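Table S4 entry, UDP-arabinose 4-epimerase 2 isoform X1.
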Amino acid sequence: MKDLPHMLPTNRSRSQPRGRPWPLSGMDYSESRRKPQVIGKLLMAAILTAFCILILKQSPSFSGTSVFSRHEPGVTHVLVTGGAGYIGSHAALRLLNDKYRVTIVDNLSRGNIGAIKALQQLFPEPGRLQFIYADLGDAKAVNRIFQENAFDAVMHFAAVAYVGESTLEPLRYYHNITSNTLLILEAMAAHGVKTLIYSSTCATYGEPEKMPITEVTPQHPINPYGKAKKMAEDIILDFSKRSDMAVMILRYFNVIGSDPEGRLGEAPRPELREHGRISGACFDAALGIISGLKVKGTDYPTSDGTCIRDYIDVTDLVDAHVKALDKARPSKVGIYNVGTGKGRSVKEFVEACKKATGVSIKVDYLERRPGDYAEVYSDPSKINRELNWTARYTDLQESLLVAWRWQKSHPNGYGLPSVMAV
């Protein structure tokens, strides 16, 4: 191969200077002119390539990581458990409106995929909202969720929450509420998540001897739902004594209403209607889904014989959660009642529902429901004072009217999609 250059023919004439190529196609491609152009183009291409690589490296897709998996200055990432449910979805809506980053975890056993889709349509921007289909009773799944996401705080709503059902299926309630809360707490501790807003209930108080209920009222729950919630509270409080975690426990009363702008509402599963909230039963009766309303218990020691409850609008309730999140501090525990401070009887509630719906609802009066208590209403002065929170939506008929508008426009709830994509 060393002789190969000598085998190449040359056609250079004697008059053609050595080292200069023959012109081709009538054009003069001199090396002296071509080299600077080629070098310039290569340099420009190199600069553009380096710039593109720099931009790509700053994007989540380049590294294969999601924005949800890393902490960002000025962005608070909140895990909302049970965010497909009635209260959880309204909380997620408020957080998203307030520019929080939100991850919803729900197994849809009680929640609605329709609520998730409504939120996704309202907040389609990347990095705002993600939904993870998972069971919080699965320790491996819970740990993986915390491992793959950078949470700053947890709002723990996920729970079965029907007093009557809890008396029929007590073990389910202890598993779903107490055990699952323990798994969440363990995952938070393992992955350094330092803020917990816990959704508790006035059911932990049982039947207090005097009203109104304050945060120091003794807790003596009388049904498995209230007992399971109190056990979860005790676990959280015991852990917090040896931790720098910021903890807020909100014990709230009977929730009614829906988003004032009609974006979300309450849509319990049909098979759970008999255990559901009184507002849902009133609306079902008004819509003709059920023949009438069944009021359980008329012999309680109250003014009209029916139970007295403190009805809190869901918009006020989620406002209390957001204020609690804002005020949460390391190594501090806050416990607050969330209510209006005013009790209303079931008969009063039914009359307000009739006026809100414009329907003369048939009412059947039945025996007491197991595990119910006669009178419960709050003293909200502590949360008023320490979190600057006050219930604003206190007109019972107006709250029911807002909820009724959503029910009328969604007679089948969020509907059941033929294919559920999660």
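The radius of gyration is 32 Å.
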